Amino acid sequence: MRQIKTSIGAFHALRSSAQNRLNCSAKMRHEAIPIGDARGGVGLTQGTVNTLCDVIFSSQTQLLDGNPVDGVEILHRGVFALPCAPGLVFKISNGSKLDLANHWNSAMRAAEILKEHKPDKFDLLVLPRITFYMLVSDHILNKQLYESLGARLKPALQQLVAFIHATGFCDVDFRHIPILDKELTPETTPKIGLVDVSRCGVVQGEAAQQTQQIYHEAFFGKGPTPRGLFRCIALEQFELLRAEVSKVSKPQITLDLAAYYEVWKDRCHDFEEAHRINNEHL
């Protein structure tokens, strides 16, 4: 399965470090592949790579727009700092491959000019160390699998709905319900892993309103994260999932139709935007 990759620049910050509001943690497989560097480059710990992938995957739109993101210091549109990587600034872009290449070549040319001239000519100018990375994330691979497997996911989704109904599991996001791709072949039925089920609400015997709130979060999410199951699946799976939810009883799950159609519109926009960006990058 082809992995989707994100490009990001990391450079030493000529500024003070941020407060520690976001801890680095290793939950899933993430890689940062250096594409090029200037002035020695910048190395990233695995913890920083994991945090970058988590932040970019869950909040890419906010980062690009310069909007607030929990635990992240926004410096400008597409430019931010992480408390777990003091002294570093990160820059992301959703531009085409050609745009990214042009920006990188300009940075390399500036570094070469500074290096070629006499030390005293630019001795009052400081160019930070820079590395251009390609990030490869399990989050992004899982997103691609959920959106591409189509009807093959039906048995696993049916069981996931039953599990949510029985346990009140509501922290539903790609990182917590990965498709087990290492076991996946064209002939096998996909399996879904349960990575973190620490957020399960007691639904049997609970007050009806509280029970429905738990189910609402499980299926429609709560802000950018968790996404909720409907925000993880492809459009062709919506009616299948809705039908499965309607079958369960004791307690019955009442889907909020307004939320259902809002998520449907959001997912339509997601796929249209992804299609547009892929066409730009061809």
TrEMBL record:
Top-level division of the source organism's lineage: Eukaryota
Query: What protein name applies here?
Result: Uncharacterized protein
Q: Which organism is it from?
A: Trichoderma lentiforme
